[in-house]
Amino acid sequence: MSGETVRKKLTIGYDETEYVCGKNAIEAENDEGTFIVSETISNIYPEKIKRFSEGKIIFVEDGENSKRIDNYEEVCRILMEREVERNSYLTYIGGGTIGDLSGFIASTYKRGLRLKAIPTTLLSQIDSSIGGKNGINFSGVKNAIGTFRNPERIVADTDFLMKNDQIIREGMAEIIKHGFSMDYTIIETLLNNDMESVKNGDILRDLIVKNADIKASVCNQDPYELLGRRYVLNFGHTVAHGIEAISRNSITHGAAVIYGIMYEMKMSEIYGMMKYDGISIMNKLMKRYGINKIEVSDEMLDGSLSYIMNDKKIRNGKITIPMATKPGMTNMAELKIEVFKELFLKAGRMM
Ligand SMILES: NC(=O)c1ccc[n+]([C@@H]2O[C@H](COP(=O)([O-])OP(=O)(O)OC[C@H]3O[C@@H](n4cnc5c(N)ncnc54)[C@H](O)[C@@H]3O)[C@@H](O)[C@H]2O)c1
Q1: Where is the 3-dehydroquinate synthase C-terminal domain (predicted)?
Q2: Which residues pair with 101 in a beta bridge?
Q3: CA spacing 20 to 30 A to 278: which of 172, 181, 286, 304?
């Protein structure tokens, strides 16, 4: 298996996605259709992009600011000018923001293009490219407009992760989330390795495939997010979303998720559900992989709590959050708002 590319099928509802992961996995991709390519990626990895005809590429800026309606319009305009036909291929090459924008274009332009994904961040390889959700931000609301559309093929080329460890740390937050909430062998693998050994071998590839599988199997239970089965993916994210929003995205998603996992573990401990010292294990992982703990002021915590209280996940005065219980397990807790607030405030004093 050493150095080999792994291929497998991911099933989500009626859709089957071919998932390909490995070093230089992009090599087998042909030049069919149109490509939406991150400008950043084309600057850092020109050798990866030059295999595709320049005339077929639409370069876009990336980052959260790219998920704008005028960007959507601009790309659709170019597709019209190039007379791109319905049902032809649209491939994106970039992180989760390019993926969200491209997925939305693929699902709406002429009622549908065939989507292929070449995600270039660890987060997008194991998380955002899987599950079908796409979207753009609108009227100050993140992902306010979007659809569900799964790519036919996802190519996770691990070379894209080699030049910047921060890209790995950001995505590792979601891997750690999966580990503590669904599969503790992931945490064991991370504890038995470090950044260098993860990168220099098949470990990173195997972690990516395992985590893509986990995300797909959760989404497969609830392809259109109607049954609440995807809640488990929210572990650490209730607090993380609050912190991110209050920081106006100056705190990155990955850093907020790491903080959120620890915070929600503390809440679970106070509530009496958590039966092991997950926080010490988190501290070990952070040290090992060079993940810094973010400083969150009392004012930010107050702001985050207000943000959470206005969140769409609150129904009938209750909030449902996954609480850590045993290694690799969470249970859903449906908490009255007053109980949630009390746990949140107590945990904040102990962080
Ligand atoms: N659709 C979903 O299910 C889903 C799930 C989770 C997150 N998301 C979305 O994904 C987005 C975050 O994705 P992301 O973390 O990939 O962010 P991103 O696309 O903004 O990329 C992060 C940064 O890394 C740069 N970059 C991309 N690939 C790189 C590489 N290989 N090497 C160096 N730099 C690289 C980008 O230029 C950007 O500045 C958010 O908009 C979030 O809402 C969607």
Answers
A1: 171-313
A2: none
A3: 304
Give 172-203 pLDDT, tens digit per residue. Answer: 999 999 999 999 999 999 999 999 999 998 99
Model confidence pLDDT, tens digit, residues 281-338: 999 999 999 999 899 999 999 999 999 998 777 889 999 999 999 999 999 999 999 9
Residue ranges covered by each domain of the chain: 6-168+186-220, 235-350
103 pLDDT above the threshold of 90: yes
Is a pLDDT exceeding 90 seen at residue 153?
A: yes
Overall CATH class of domain 235-350:
mainly alpha
Which of 128, 218, 222, 257 for a ligand 1 pocket mutation test, highest count of atoms within 8 Å of Cβ? Answer: 128
The values of phi and psi at residue 46, to 5°, are -60, -30
Task: List active site positions.
Answer: 111, 133, 174, 215, 225, 230, 234, 237, 241, 253
Q: Which of 313, 311, 308 is nearest to 332 (CA)?
A: 313
Q: Quote the CA–CA distance of 125 and 27 in Å, as a whole number.
A: 17
Fold of 6-168+186-220: Rossmann fold (3.40.50)
Q: Which residues form ligand 1's pocket by a CB distance below 6 Å?
A: 38, 40-41, 44, 62-64, 67, 94-98, 100, 120-121, 123-124, 127-128, 131, 133-134, 160, 163-164, 167, 170, 253
